[in-house]
Amino acid sequence: MISLSVNRLSKSYNRKPVFTDISFEHDDGVLGIAGSNGSGKSTLLKCLAYLTRAQKGSILWKQQEIELTKEDIKKSLGYAAPYINLYDELTSYENLEFLLQVAGLPIQITHINSQIDQVQMKDHRQKLFKSLSTGQRQRIKIAAALIRKPDIIFLDEPGSNLDKSGHELVKKIVNMQKAKNKLVVIASNDPKEIKLCDQVIKL
User: Fold this and answer.
1) What is the pLDDT at residue 1?
2) Distance between CA atoms of 4 and 173, rounded to whole angstroms?
3) First to last CA, the chain
4) What mean pLDDT is predicted for residues 111-129?
5) What pLDDT band is residue 15 in, cutting at 50, 70 and 90?
6) How many CB atoms lie within 10 A of CB 109?
């Protein structure tokens, strides 16, 4: 099991604080990061994923009491967010195939198709990503976050642009990953998504 420890983390942009002195520990279940728009949820996720650097504080990831490096985390992380895009000129299938290729993982047609089926996009496998609706793109982004079978899954506003069935899909996926002992982090201002979490950090 992977654990996360954050100690007095602070982040500013142009000397304007985004969050200050955040401390928490998490090692079981689903972690929620709640707050209104502009409260720093996405920025905190980026700090935890080492996509941006905090000015102060520390982030410690461990697995079986062994400290994980930044590279370990990046290899173990699946990340779905509005600001992380896929390639417009590739199909849904090709985008997932490409993610496996760059990670140096085997290309298994059945695995790629099962991920597409899981997000209920079976009939859109060979459609260009740019031709999909915003809700359909969100479903493929979630599939992309899961395609490498990551041990850590970051979902930033996972239900954005999704209909009722899409929200049920998010719930199902979160519960499924939790049952596999994956570390899931949800950043959201949707009370229904935060309700899926076992521990909540409010910004």
Assistant:
1) 82
2) 21
3) 26
4) 98
5) confident
6) 9
Rounded CA gap, 79 and 45, in Å? 9
pLDDT digits (tens, 9 = 90+) for 37-52: 989 999 999 999 999 9
The CA distances from residue 88 to 81, 100, 113, 131, 137, in Å, are 16, 17, 19, 8, 10
Contact 17, 171 (CB under 8 A): no
The confidence score (pLDDT) of residue 28 equals 87
Strand duo 199-202 + 30-34: pairing: parallel
Q: What is the pTM of this model?
A: 0.95
**Residue 113 corresponds to which tokens in the numbers above?**
């198709």
Helix axes 109-118, 134-146, angle to 10 degrees: 130
* Cα(60)–Cα(6) distance, integer angstroms: 6
Tokens 């992309």 map to which residue? 144
Contact 203, 9 (CB under 8 A): no
